[in-house]
């Protein structure tokens, strides 16, 4: 049995990654402190509760399973919270990742797949965002992810750690079989908030700013289906297992949608209007984040198949209605 240590395997993206790893013949070992994850989402391999900053616990888990690689998803990931509580982002995302990397190196586990973000790029007017775009994050979340990228490079040089870094654009959708899906408390992401508003599970959606320099005044994002996203991770893992070199890939489709376009599509897919109001801009938000790279396609052979807006919203809606581990 080939074990992969999946930090954050009880979270939204990590749980989908565990399902994809299992389907690809690996055994995902979830390591999660359940601060933002859900034990019910751990369905595809063993669960080990633990914190990234707990070196002794990490050493124990590495010794028990002897994983051949790490997929590191565990992180705090709310831009708004990162603006008001930056210390938590530096401590958990950077300090925790450093502890994990040191434990992996000590255990001789030198293949590492890392969940980074296009938030590391920051604001770039009229620039195509590819992997060589300078990284000037606008918030502590993006800054913390950029710092971990640097740590991975340093440990590559010093200890032979090989990494595939994925810079995600906006992840949406859910497992079409609705075994796992998106469930955050508090929820801050656009698609689940839109669906909650449609369903009357919360008040109207607030659009954060309509005065951006975009065609309809609302922010533009590049949405990628979570299943396509985790497929890229399995390809990245196989890349490392084949003995290839460290890489950085954007994961986005290259197509941007505004907040209003997402709302309109959700209304079309569900057949219900989106109750909404207009509010001020949210601090830390960039006007437009759209990938301008096809490296993951050309180098890894990544072929997203569910990342059109309609499929993402339809899958998210199916999961939303199933309400599996909702509380
Ligand atoms: N938005 C609203 N109202 C809401 C929530 C969101 O108008 O109630 C808008 C945001 O202002 C933004 C867009 O919808 O323009 C998408 O917002 P999300 O919070 O869903 O996503 P973000 O783009 O802020 O951030 C997400 C992840 C980050 C990641 C980032 C990369 O949360 O982890 O994508 O773009 F880094």
UniProtKB/TrEMBL annotation:
It comes from the Bacteria. It catalyses: UDP-alpha-D-glucose = UDP-alpha-D-galactose. InterPro entries: Epimerase_deHydtase (IPR001509), NAD(P)-bd_dom_sf (IPR036291), UDP_G4E (IPR005886). Its cofactor is NAD(+). It is an enzyme of class 5 (isomerase). Keywords: Carbohydrate metabolism, Isomerase, NAD. GO terms for biological process: galactose catabolic process via UDP-galactose, Leloir pathway. Its EC number is 5.1.3.2. Homodimer. Belongs to the NAD(P)-dependent epimerase/dehydratase family. This is UDP-glucose 4-epimerase. It comes from Phaeobacter italicus. The gene is galE.
């Amino acid at each position: 049995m080939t074990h992969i240590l999946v930090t954050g395997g009880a979270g939204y993206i990590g749980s989908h990654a565990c399902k994809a790893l299992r389907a690809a013949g690996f055994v995902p070992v979830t390591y999660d402190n359940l601060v933002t994850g859900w034990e019910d989402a751990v369905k595809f391999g063993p669960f080990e509760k633990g914190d990234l900053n707990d070196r002794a616990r990490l050493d124990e888990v590495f010794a028990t399973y002897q994983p051949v690689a790490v997929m590191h998803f565990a992180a705090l990931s709310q831009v708004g919270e990162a603006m008001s509580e930056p210390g938590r982002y530096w401590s958990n995302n950077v300090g925790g990742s450093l502890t994990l990397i040191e434990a992996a190196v000590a255990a001789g586990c030198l293949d590492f797949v890392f969940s980074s973000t296009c938030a590391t790029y920051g604001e770039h007017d009229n620039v195509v965002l590819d992997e060589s775009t300078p990284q000037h994050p606008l918030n502590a979340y993006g800054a913390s992810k950029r710092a971990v990228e640097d740590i991975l490079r340093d440990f590559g040089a010093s200890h032979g750690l090989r990494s595939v870094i994925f810079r995600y654009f906006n992840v949406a959708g859910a497992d079409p079989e609705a075994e796992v899906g998106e469930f955050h408390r508090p929820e801050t992401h656009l698609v689940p908030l839109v669906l909650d508003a449609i369903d009357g599970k919360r008040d109207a959606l607030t659009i954060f700013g309509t005065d951006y320099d975009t065609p309809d005044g609302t922010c533009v994002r590049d949405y990628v289906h979570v299943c396509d996203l985790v497929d890229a991770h399995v390809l990245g893992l196989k890349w490392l297992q084949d003995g290839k070199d460290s890489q950085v890939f954007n994961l986005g489709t290259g197509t941007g949608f505004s907040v209003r376009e997402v709302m309109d599509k959700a209304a079309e897919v569900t057949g219900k209007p989106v109750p909404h109001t207009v509010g001020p801009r949210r601090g830390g938000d960039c006007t437009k984040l759209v990938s301008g790279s096809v490296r993951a396609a050309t180098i890894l052979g990544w072929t997203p198949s569910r990342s059109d807006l309609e499929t993402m919203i339809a899958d998210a809606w199916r999961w939303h209605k199933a309400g599996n581990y909702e509380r």
